[in-house]
Amino acid sequence: MVQVRVVGVAVDVNAQPVVLLQPLTSVDDEERFLPIWIGAQEATSIVIAAQGAEAPRPLSHDLMKSMLDALDASVEQVEVTRIDAGTFYAEVTLEGPAGRQILDARPSDAIGLALRTGALIWVADEVFEEASIPADAARVESEEEKLAEFKQFLEDVDPEDFQG
After folding, report:
1. How many CB atoms lie under 10 A from the CB of residue 100?
2. Signal peptide: which range, if any (predicted)?
3. How much is the pTM?
């Protein structure tokens, strides 16, 4: 298992949200990220939790945490356990009065809950090996970088470039 942290949420070229996970320790000589495509609502929830912010009303992951607190249970860890035909699978390990329980979960829900509870996030070695990408490929330009690049284009453009 590879322990990871949430680096952030990005949007791919098709405007689909992606959560990027980075190992806490180097897996090999090359820095790598694990991208997991998620839904827009889950992306919003993960971003809010990663920033330590609170939504005006409880989101689903906030409700899950409140329910666990009310039941005197805690999240021990979450694991991205496998990938099958491009679909990631995860598990949430709970500890409470009923003992240890392992629940099937979508990775986005497991990650959203882990961020709210401070639980560790793990990825199976096989999943990381199969689906991780080099850090360079995961680089996401900030809005400031995109704006600076566009401004540079405008400064360098020559009206004659557009004549037929």
Report:
1. 9
2. none
3. 0.80
Q: Can you read off the two tokens belonging to residue 133?
A: 């990408």
Eight-class DSSP state of 12: -
pLDDT digits (tens, 9 = 90+) for 12-52: 888 899 999 999 987 666 789 999 999 999 999 999 999 98
Helix (H, G, I), strand (E, B) or coil at 151: helix
User: Taking the mean position of all CA atoms in its chain, how far away is CA 115?
Assistant: 10
User: Candidates 3.40.50.300, 3.10.690.10, 3.30.830.10, 3.60.21.10; correct CATH number of 2-162?
Assistant: 3.10.690.10
- Domain range summary for the chain, segments of one domain joined by +: 2-162
User: pLDDT tens digit string along 72-94?
Assistant: 999 999 999 999 999 999 999 99
